[in-house]
Specification:
It contains 7 helices and no strands. With about 280 residues, it is mainly alpha-helical.
Length: about 280
């Protein structure tokens, strides 16, 4: 069986080493991309989604408080008014608790500004609620005018501020989702690129190996062919100037370019191989 020369084997070693390097780079790139995806996902789960849920809850509690204030204003008896007053206090307390707890979820100056605006407008609405409850029963019409006029204006301001907080968190969740999709697409592209490089290097190594074997086989074939011709021609084929003599020298030179076989065997047994001189 024809042997692959040292230069071919060295080249194959370089090619397979390149495959190993590419595989390592592929793993590092994939790990980096997945780490980015994990970080963005963690931020989304730990902050953005809770902030969005709390902002929606605050907005809902503002609306519920307003509805029970309306029921308070339209109650037909003291029992209904008392029940409405209790609900107003309950939802207002839940709203204030949610707003106070939201402070720890703030992550941007824009969100902080919206939060401060909401708190300021809510304080004004609280003052309006105290004024509304202070109206005596005989001034019902004045109380209703205040409820539908200045107090309603302040309520709309509070509701708008709460909605701004919700919109900020919706935009943040969309940005996080876009970042996750981008990192995933980038990781996929890097993986595909590295796989393509690996495939190219693999096929290159296979082609190079096949070429080396083919060349070695052709050299051995011609060597055997010339040797047979010399055997048939006899001693005159070894005289200087004979075509077979020239062919024999050229073909044999191909086989011993990296060392004669017998010398290589002796060096292998002795353990005396000089790789820098191509003796293997």
């Amino acid at each position: 069986m024809p042997k692959i020369s040292l230069s071919v084997r060295a080249s194959l070693g370089c090619l397979f080493a390149s495959m190993l390097v590419v595989s390592i780079l592929q793993g590092v790139a994939a790990y980096h991309k997945l780490s980015n995806v994990s970080a963005v996902t963690a931020t989304l789960l730990e902050n953005t989604i809770p902030s969005l849920n709390e902002a929606h809850a605050i907005n809902a509690l503002v609306l519920r408080t307003r509805l029970w204030q309306f029921r308070y204003m339209t109650a037909e008896n003291e029992v209904a008014k008392s029940q409405s007053r209790e609900k107003i206090i309950e939802f207002a307390g839940d709203r204030d608790t949610k707003i106070d707890g939201y402070r720890s979820l703030i992550t941007s100056p824009e969100e902080q500004q919206a939060y401060d605006a909401l708190k300021a407008k809510l304080e004004t609405l609280k003052v309006d609620g105290e004024r509304l409850r202070a109206f005596p029963a005989e001034r019902y019409e004045d109380a209703m005018t205040f409820f539908r006029g200045p107090m309603n204006t302040n309520y709309l301001a509070v509701s708008g501020a709460a909605r701004v907080l919700v919109d900020i968190n919706i935009a943040a969740s969309k940005r996080a989702d876009a970042a996750i999709r981008s990192e995933q697409a980038s990781a996929l592209q890097s993986t595909v690129l590295m796989l393509c490089l690996t495939v190219l290097i693999t096929f290159g190594a296979m082609a190079f190996c096949f070429l080396g074997v083919l060349l070695g086989g052709v050299s051995a074939f011609y060597d055997g062919l010339v040797d047979t011709a010399i055997q048939l021609a006899g001693g005159k084929a070894l005289t200087v100037g004979h075509p077979l003599e020239r062919l024999y020298r050229e073909v044999r030179a191909l086989r011993i370019a990296e060392g004669a076989n017998d010398v290589l065997r002796l060096n292998l047994v002795r353990g005396d191989l000089d790789l820098h001189k191509g003796l293997l």
